[in-house]
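Dear Dr. H.,

I hope your travels went smoothly. While you were away I took the liberty of generating a structure for the chain from your last submission, since the lab meeting agenda had it listed for discussion. I wanted you to have the full record in hand beforehand rather than looking at slides cold. The sequence, exactly as received, is reproduced here:
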Amino acid sequence: MSRAVFVSDIHISSAQDPKYQKFLRFLDACIRQRVQDVFLVGDIFDLWIADRAFFTRQYNEAVVKIRQMVTLGIRVHYFEGNHDLDLRVFWQHQVGASVYSDAAFFQINNMFVRVEHGDMMDPEDKGYLFLRRVLRSPIIVFLGRYVPGFVVNWIGRKASVMSRDYTTDVKTVTDEEVRAKILKHACDAFGETPFDVIVSGHVHVAEDSLEKVGLREFRNVNLGTWLKKPILLDIREKSVELRAIEEFLDE
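The corresponding predicted structure, in token form, is as follows:
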């Protein structure tokens, strides 16, 4: 039976960020514990664009470890978020991870699992959905790959701050309201294609609940953010469990 772990919304801001060192330890633990599937569910870095040297050099230790994981046969699944963009050109084509722009389904042990970053879960957030389309447009992808690196970094940092300001100031809602959106999206998604577990991130509110649609039950998990509490989802043969990162690292 296989084992899969999931992390999201770490928002690593620099090579000196303490969260970066913890992320490196997490990758080492995945290798040591022979985890078969590692899911990076978006916004791992506070900014990453394409294969620009500014990012590949700054986070070279993570690149080396993830490349080692792929060489060892560990399947690494990286979902684009709203802070890490155009990932396929580097993480898939050069490192060997699988990159996803939208929700994807996986068979893990005897469970059918839907995984997504979660930034599409609120169809009423027209402002963000417009921004998402712009950030993924061909002209922005082109600019991200080919304009001078210092320009990309400056624009990216500004966009990152704007995104965070939008989330904290414009989209200020209670955790209960966020959980209601997570649940509604999960139920809508289940109605389209039933699953046993749905895993998301983006909204920075950890959630783990057992839900029911008709006669069928499913597990609804949101990974929260390492900005509040570093956690992961650990799926093993007979368990689906949200755990503190430190607990996983100490195994």
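Two observations you may find useful: The first strand starts at residue 4 and ends at 7. The two ends are 19 Å apart (CA to CA).

With kind regards,
E. W.
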